Recover the amino acids of this structure.
């Protein structure tokens, strides 16, 4: 019973300076070079449609009844920025695999597997299964697409921007000699919309991506760690709670960062801030989960709300800042009430959010759970409740609360800042359990 507090003392681990060098320098060099070549016309600018030269295109998600989850359908080499040779070389692949939709029906999804070429001297090379944080729900925002692009702006309407902000974390693990697998998250085959807010489906898709990676050369005997922050924290939290879903996938530990435990609180917290656009992702994701939920939510929105939701779900997170930053969702509804208030009265939405809530099951692996005192996207109080629920159920739990100073303006810096500030601390905890 109870939990252990992660020591807040800053520890500079052996090899960290070299890992930072191998992470940052090639990313700056290759990323700036790619942007420069696009600006001067030496290489084509990526568009919103699939088919960018450095990213294999497998088409849209489709239903595949009867196929087994975790099966690879397609795979092709992927040119990941920062991992294209020395000093942080990796063999990288984008792949299409079988997972399930929100109702468990078999569909195709995409992800990536990156095999580090850095030496590993402690037995079998470990693997990090990463559930990425939100980058946008449109297909051109998928992490296995953006990791080959880095940064890109779209000047045709709606204004949009790709910002591959999980790429430094991926390269950090590669620089330490660990392999990395991540999912792009499943999306509805008909509407093409990601099942946003569905952490259970996201968790299963992450485990299925690991299964698929075994067919690409990943060792089933490799020590496996789960890593996720924000949207990804919800996915890894559920993956740690579902040991029976993929019995041959046996993670040894998980880092669950700032998970959206109480979705109503999250929607209320971001409303009117710079990240209001994620509420549009939630609305679209809920509607994609079932026709009944779509029919329950749709009458709530006025014409402006429908237009703004459409703009957001066809853009990446960078575009959503421009489209809906500091907008109140009260301007999206017929009643002029904020969406969080209205959704809280919709029975199907309430039932769905209740189903998605973490804490009913205790993980059977060591878990590092963390949140931020001044988080302006995902409030820490529900995460503390999850901490107490998991520890009361006997979970092997380590807790850390980031106390970084609050940055005013509701910009999301209080959400993302502690993630990168504590990268060495949290990744070190996980790597210690994979050796």
């Amino acid at each position: 019973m109870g939990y252990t507090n992660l020591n807040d003392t800053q520890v500079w681990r052996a090899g960290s300076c070299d890992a930072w060098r191998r992470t940052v320098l090639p990313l700056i060099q290759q990323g700036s070079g790619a942007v420069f070549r696009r600006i001067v016309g030496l290489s084509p600018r990526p568009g919103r449609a699939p088919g960018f030269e450095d990213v294999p295109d497998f088409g849209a998600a489709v239903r595949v009844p009867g196929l087994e989850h975790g099966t690879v359908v397609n795979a092709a080499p992927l040119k990941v920025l920062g991992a294209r040779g020395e000093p942080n070389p990796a063999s990288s692949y984008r792949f299409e695999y079988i997972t399930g939709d929100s109702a468990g029906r078999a569909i195709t999804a995409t992800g990536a597997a990156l095999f580090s070429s850095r030496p590993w001297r402690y037995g079998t090379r470990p693997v990090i299964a990463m559930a990425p944080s939100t980058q946008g729900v449109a297909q051109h925002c998928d992490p296995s697409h953006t990791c080959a692009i880095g940064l890109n702006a779209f000047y045709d309407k709606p204004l949009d921007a790709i910002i591959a902000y999980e790429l430094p974390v991926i390269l950090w693990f590669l620089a330490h000699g660990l392999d990395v697998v991540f999912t792009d998250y499943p999306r509805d085959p008909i509407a093409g919309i990601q099942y946003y807010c569905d952490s259970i489906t996201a968790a299963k898709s992450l485990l299925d991506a690991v299964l698929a990676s075994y067919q690409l050369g990943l060792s089933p005997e490799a020590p496996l760690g789960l890593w996720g922050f924000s949207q990804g924290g919800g996915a890894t939290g559920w993956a740690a709670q579902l040991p029976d879903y993929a019995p041959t996938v046996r993670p040894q530990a998980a880092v669950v960062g700032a998970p959206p435990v109480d979705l109503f609180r999250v929607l209320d917290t971001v409303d009117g801030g710079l990240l209001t656009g994620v509420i549009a992702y939630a609305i679209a994701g809920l509607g994609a989960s079932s026709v009944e939920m779509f029919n329950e939510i749709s009458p709530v929105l006025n014409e402006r709300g429908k237009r703004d939701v459409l703009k957001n779900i066809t853009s990446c997170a960078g575009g959503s800042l421009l489209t809906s930053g500091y907008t109140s969702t009260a301007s999206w509804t017929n009643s002029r009430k904020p969406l969080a208030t209205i959704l809280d009265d919709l029975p199907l939405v309430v039932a769905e959010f209740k189903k998605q809530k973490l804490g009913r099951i205790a993980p059977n692996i060591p878990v590092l759970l963390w949140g931020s005192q001044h988080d302006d996207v995902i409030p820490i109080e529900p995460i503390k409740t999850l901490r107490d629920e998991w520890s009361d159920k006997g979970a092997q739990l380590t807790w850390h609360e980031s106390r970084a100073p609050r940055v005013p303006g509701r910009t999301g810096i209080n959400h993302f800042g502690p993630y990168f500030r504590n990268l060495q601390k949290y990744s070190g905890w996980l790597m210690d359990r994979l050796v």
User: Anything to note?
Assistant: The chain has two domains: 4-262+357-432, 265-352. The chain has a mean pLDDT of 94. The CA atoms of residues 114 and 278 lie 28 Å apart. The two ends are 26 Å apart (CA to CA).
